[in-house]
Amino acid sequence: RAKEVPGSHFVLYDSTLAYEAEQRMMMEKDLRLAIEEQQFFLEYQPIVHLETGRVKGFEALVRWQRGDLVVRPDMFIPVAEKSGLIVPLGKWVLAEACRHASLWPADVGVSVNVAGEQFKDVGFVAMVERTLAETGLNARRLTIEFTESLFSVDVDVVRGSLSRLRALGVKLALDDFGTGFSSISHLRCFPLDTLKIDRSFTESMLTDEREAELVGVIMKLSQAFDISTTVEGVETESQLEFIRKAGAGDVQGFLFSRPVPVDQVPSVIAETRNRQRKNEALPVAASAAIV
Ligand code: C2E
Ligand code: MG
Ligand code: MG
Ligand code: MG
């Protein structure tokens, strides 16, 4: 509870909890306004097919233009989720991403992150369908990314929604795999197209043998289930070499490109096409030098 200090304009708090609650309320208020005023924009990070070097698609990542500051999603998505504001925000993200992607080459897809809270909304799948119709984006070019936290939402509802999305042709990716309560049963019980192996593995696989082993196992397991893999957070050539040996798949990370504004998407696509034409190894630096 806040206490006025006599004779000053400072306010003391007798618990950090109260302080945090207040911070969250303030952020919630700002977020609400930000949604009304559309203070958000999307950046896009390429997802690259390792063997061919082709850009398969881009992941849409939301940013909040808060005055002069650009706020990263980790700072406000949790608040948006707790307050339910993720529903209107997520709806905007999806529509914006589909609108953008409908202007890209037809073999380039778009991935959109969807929070568990959005799945709880009974109209979610219908909203996705409407958005695809309105933007003219082929459902097959859309991937919806969700995390394992989704499985703590009502399992039957989730399974139902995922199946309906898939029936539309939308692809499904399990994001940040290996960080939550990962379970093999998730692979058995839910329709999935892609596993995104979390960046924490990419960070540790070169120094920790057991982590490296785990990455190999996850890749093999995915193959057995006919699920593709995307390795997140690839920053170095040596990580790339490791992934190549472990079974390739798709890769995403700063080594290829940081998330870029939408107007740079065509040049990212063109760059990789040029590289492919010249038969150059991926990415920029030649991997032949590494061996
Ligand atoms: P995510 O879905 O796992 O997205 C990947 C994050 O890793 C992005 O952070 C990206 O910039 C970062 N990243 C990519 N490559 C590298 C790399 O090589 N090294 C390092 N250090 N980082 C890399 P970002 O944009 O800050 O997003 C953070 C998280 O916020 C996302 O993690 C996602 O969970 C969430 N998020 C972003 N946009 C949305 C959205 O529209 N809706 C929802 N619900 N969540 C979102
Ligand atoms: Mg993601
Ligand atoms: Mg991820
Ligand atoms: Mg991640």
UniProtKB/TrEMBL annotation:
EAL domain: residues covered: 24-273
Keywords: Membrane, Transmembrane, Transmembrane helix
Organism: Georhizobium profundi
Residue span relative to the full protein: 243 to 533 of 541
Keyword Transmembrane helix attached: yes
Protein name: Bifunctional diguanylate cyclase/phosphodiesterase
Protein's UniProt keywords contain Transmembrane helix: yes
